[in-house]
Amino acid sequence: MNTQVAIIGAGPSGLLLGQLLHKAGIDTVILERQTPEYVLGRIRAGVLEQGTVDLLREAGVAERMDREGLVHEGVELLVAGRRQRLDLKGLTGGKTVMVYGQTEVTCDLMQAREASGAPIIYSASNVQPHELKDERPYVTFEKDGQTHRLDCDYIAGCDGFHGVSRKSIPEGVLKEYERVYPFGWLGMLSDTPPVNHELIYAHHERGFSLCSQRSQTRSRYYLQVPLDERVEDWSDERFWNELKARLPEDVARQLVTGPALEKSIAPLRSLVVEPMQYGHLFLVGDAAHIVPPTGAKGLNLAASDVNYLYRILVKVYREGRIDLLQQYSPLALRRVWKGERFSWFMTQLLHDFGEHKDAWDQKMQEADREYFLTSPAGLVNIAENYVGLPYEEVA
Questions:
Q1: Residues 160-186: pLDDT tens digits?
Q2: Which long-range contacts (CB under 8 A, 24 or more apart) does 239-246 make?
Q3: Is residue 354's pLDDT more than 90?
Q4: By three-state DSSP, how is residue 345 classified?
Q5: Which end of the chain has the least Cβ crowding within 10 Å, N or C?
């Protein structure tokens, strides 16, 4: 088999990159070790930055998003019982975010890939990139008991933190930066109307909570919990009671409860590897960086990586600009680190660190809340990062 760009991973980043390159006339083959049903079963983020929305429209997969997605012009921050609405549109010159589940984005991209006829191979096992420093790298994989070889010009590693792409880079090449937080998020998905028409990020002495949504009839709620908590110990009733305890009475009274569709605990961590490129292999999304979900940046940073790699490859094939290949990692990392900073900042601002913060840190946390939630400049700072910083031009 031969192609121009081999894409490892059929999550939203791999599918989006494949769709954009296909529209540009660049051949791709996508390899995914899981089944389509497994890929669609992943419950992930639901807040899309303005830049991500624009990129999905450019890819021609935004029809259902624009019809069913919820445009949000603001979010609410709740600290010490005080509700502060963040006017995203007003503070950023008209930018907004779109509430549209990652599962729905993935579904739209999968349908577009199928309609295009471009190859995608699911249940591909033992995927392995080779000769990454040579002019013609290749990928081997197994399918239905047979070993296959895929020759290509470039490889995009879109296979997440546990994937093979990053692990294929020799030891000593990558530098890793990591921050592990002493708590996780217990998330519940339910077919209940959202408690508020906009998201609520709430700090409380009992711990952080987030009231999010996927549609006007499906809600996603989160509770900060210790790392040693077990999902099995959280009945639906216990979850709802704890959420109500962390919300103001007027909000708690409006909360519609119901059975959980899904419940899980995710530990919070920040991680970045540098560089995001090795020879003809390019790391994209979670393969190169992880963010705590507080800033709603995970999927959006993956889309940012896709944006840069897509535009570079188009110039490589159309204009012969192979000099731009070395710009991918610096371009992507500049935006990644800003997204990491914002996610770290929001996590620090809104969570209860308890014994993991000393008295000085607690006072700094209180001072940050007082400044950023009362200062016009502070509110602009949060708003412009939340809707997404602009992409740099590839030139």
A1: 999 999 999 999 999 999 999 999 999
A2: 239/186, 239/188, 239/263, 242/206, 243/209, 243/211, 245/204, 245/206, 246/202, 246/204, 246/206, 246/207, 246/208, 246/209
A3: no
A4: helix
A5: C
Could you tell me the pLDDT band of residue 45, with boundaries at 50, 70 and 90? Answer: confident
Q: Please tell me the distance from the alpha carbon of residue 171 to that of residue 40, in angstroms, as a whole number.
A: 33
Contacts of residue 253, Cβ cutoff 8 Å, sequence gap at least 6: none
pLDDT tens per residue, range 366-387: 999 999 988 999 999 999 999 9
What's the predicted TM-score (pTM) here?
0.94
As given in the structure block, the two tokens for residue 81 are 């019982």
The CA–CA distances, whole Å, from 250 to 253, 255, 283 equal: 5, 9, 46
Distance CA 152, CA 294 (A): 38
Residue showing tokens 């993991």: 356
Give the C-alpha separation, 363 to 369, whole Å: 10
* Measured distance CA(313)–CA(321) in Å, rounded: 9
Angle between helix 359-372 and 376-387 (nearest 10): 90
- Residues 149, 128: Cα–Cα separation, whole Å: 10
Structure tokens at 27: 């051949």
The amino acid that residue 376 corresponds to is P
Distance CA 137, CA 134 (A): 6
CA distance 51 to 111: 22
| 25 CB burial (10 A radius; 0-12, 13-18, 19+) | exposed
- Residues 6 or more apart in contact with residue 312 via CB below 8 angstroms: 321, 324, 325, 327, 328, 394
* Gap between the Cα atoms of 388 and 395, Å rounded: 21
Give the torsion through C-alpha atoms of 42, 47, 50, 56, to 10 deg: 20
Amino acid at 210: L
3-state helix, strand, coil in the chain (%, to 5): 40, 25, 30
Q: Please give the positions annotated as active site.
A: 72, 201, 293, 297, 386
As a three-state string, the secondary structure of 224-281 is EEECCCCHHHCCHHHHHHHHHHCCCHHHHHHCCCCCEEEEEEEEEEEEEEECCEECCE
Mean pLDDT of 311-339: 97
